[in-house]
Write a structure and sequence with these properties.
This protein is α+β, with helices and mostly antiparallel strands. It has a single domain, classed as Gcn5-related N-acetyltransferase (GNAT) (Aminopeptidase). 38% of the residues lie in helices and 25% in strands. The protein contains 6 helices and 7 strands. It binds coenzyme A.
Length: 190
C-alpha cells in the first residue's frame, strides 16, 4: 500500500526534491525545467506521484516531433509526399532509484502508449518515438516492441507504430497493467 502511486499531468504542488534516477541530465530537468516547460507547453510532463508522500517518483515527458520519411518503409510509403512523419515523442523518462524495478517505468510507457492513441484519434500520427540512451536500453525498448530505425544511427532513434500500440491495447483488454493507476490518470488529464 505504501508504494501506491498515480500517473497524472505534473501537479503544481508535487515534491520534486530528492528525485534521482541516475542520469544527471534527467535529474536536472526535473529540478530546473520540468515545471516551466510543462506550463509553457514545450513538453507535457506526466508524473508518477507517490500518494502517501506526494513525491514525484517517476515521469514521462511527451511532445510532438516529425521525422524524415525514411523512419520506416511504411512511413516512407505513407508520408513521402509531405516529407514529414508526424509522431508523439518521449522526450524523457525516468524513475527515481529507490522506486526502480517495481514496474513504474513500464506503467509510464503504457501510459504513453494510451496517450499516443488518444492523440492519433484526433490528428494524424504515425508512431510513438524516442531516442534510447544506450544499447542496453535499446533492448529494454525492443522488448516492448519498439523498433530501432537503423543499427548505424548513433542517436538510437526507436519507434512503435500507432497500429502496433492499438493491437497491444486491444490484446491487453481490461487486463492492462496497473489498471487503477491508469484510471486515475485518465480521469485527471487536463
Ligand atoms: C529506464 C527506467 C525508466 C526504467 O524504469 P523502472 O521503473 O526501473 O522499469 P520497470 O520496473 O518497469 O522495468 C525494469 C526493467 O527495466 C529494464 N531496464 C531498466 N534500466 C535498464 C537499462 N539501463 N538497460 C537495460 N534494461 C533496463 C530491466 O529489464 C529491468 O528488469 P529487471 O528488473 O529484470 O532488471 C529507469 O531505470 C530509469 O529511470 N533509468 C535512468 C534514466 C533512463 O535511463 N531513462 C531512459 C533514457 S532513454
Amino acid at each position: 500500500m505504501d508504494d501506491d502511486y498515480v500517473i497524472v499531468p505534473l501537479p503544481d504542488g508535487v515534491i520534486r526534491k530528492g528525485f534521482s534516477c541516475g542520469i544527471q541530465l534527467i535529474d536536472n530537468f526535473v529540478k530546473n525545467n520540468a515545471a516551466k516547460q510543462h506550463k509553457k507547453g514545450q513538453v507535457r510532463v506526466h508524473a508518477a506521484v507517490h500518494v502517501a508522500s506526494n513525491r514525484l517518483i517517476g515521469f514521462v515527458s511527451l511532445c510532438l516531433k516529425t521525422y524524415e520519411p525514411d523512419l520506416s518503409e511504411e512511413s516512407k510509403e505513407l508520408f513521402e509526399r509531405v516529407q514529414a512523419v508526424p509522431t508523439v515523442y518521449i522526450a524523457m523518462i525516468g524513475v527515481t532509484q529507490e522506486f526502480q524495478k517495481k514496474g513504474i517505468g513500464g506503467d509510464l510507457l503504457w501510459y504513453a502508449f494510451e496517450k499516443s492513441v488518444e492523440i492519433a484519434n484526433i490528428a494524424g500520427t504515425y508512431a510513438l518515438t524516442l531516442n534510447a540512451n544506450d544499447d542496453s536500453l535499446c533492448e529494454y525498448y525492443q522488448n516492448l516492441d519498439f523498433i530501432r530505425m537503423s543499427e548505424d544511427d548513433e542517436t538510437r532513434i526507436m519507434y512503435i507504430p500507432i497500429s502496433k500500440i492499438r493491437e497491444a491495447i486491444a490484446q491487453a483488454g481490461s487486463e492492462q497493467p496497473s489498471t487503477a493507476n491508469s484510471e486515475v490518470a485518465n480521469s485527471t488529464v487536463a
